[in-house]
Amino acid sequence: MYLNLAHWLKGTRALGPGKRLAIWVQGCCFDCTGCIAQSWRKRRRAKLIGPEELAKLDLDGVDGITISGGEPFLQAKPLAAYLKSAKETYPGLSVIIFTGFTRDDLTWSSALGLIEHVDLLITGPYIPEQNNGTGLRGSANQELIFLTDRLKPWAEEIVSGQRSVELYYRGNELLIVGMPEEKVLKSILGEIEELEK
Ligand code: SF4
Asked: Number of structural domains, the chain?
């Protein structure tokens, strides 16, 4: 059983409270207009890694894990196995998952198995017209579902706080971490275009 990952990054503060491990899965079954993860949407082989192998990653000093993509629930079974192992070593971790599915869609058994490990589920497709720059979601239609009390002390920040965005260069590729408002995204891309001239 393998995870097919687009990328992972330890230490982000743009995808939930505290310092987090971000995991982006490769492959999505949705086609949201304005998706900023275009290269991670394609259902192709990317970085294959076993759940137990990924769970060996040193997460000392990390407060939680945020999983996005791509569509995490297409890899529900290996993700559940990974989270189970990671939490055995680091029981204090909080878990956030972004999904294009709605809560009512997530009824199959491996999806329910994954949900058992999640503290905050952010559901629904991205709709650019509803991207208002606030809250831990790409657009205001997306539902923030607190499945446990673990992240409730940050509920206000999660529901209506200002978002932050981090930029990383991987070789000559730019990685945008977070959910930039449309105008912020345009300005980042504009600046980069200028720099590359
Ligand atoms: S669900 Fe997420 S990754 Fe998939 S198309 Fe929509 S925004 Fe992109």
From this structure: 1
Residue 31 Cα to ligand 1 midpoint, Å, equals 6
Q: Tell me the pLDDT tens digit for each residue of 52-103.
A: 999 999 999 999 999 999 999 999 999 999 999 999 999 999 999 999 999 9
- What pTM was estimated for this model as a whole? 0.95
Nearest ligand 1 atom to alpha carbon 40: 3
| Residue from 35, 36, 129, 141 whose mutation best tests the ligand 1 pocket (most atoms within 8 A of CB) | 35
Q: How far is the CA of 38 from the centre of ligand 1 (A)?
A: 8
- Tokens standing for residue 89: 């070593």
State phi, psi for 34 to the nearest 5 degrees: 80, 10
- Contacts of 44 by beta carbon, 8 Å cutoff, 6+ apart: 26, 27
**CATH classification at residue 120:** 3.20.20
Identify which of 95, 44, 47, 92 has the alpha carbon closest to the alpha carbon of residue 68: 95
What contacts 46, CB < 8 A, 6 or more positions away? 4, 5, 6, 26, 27, 40
Q: Distance of CA 9 to CAs 68, 87, 101, 145, 187, Å?
A: 12, 18, 24, 24, 24
> Residue 16's domain spans which residues?
3-196
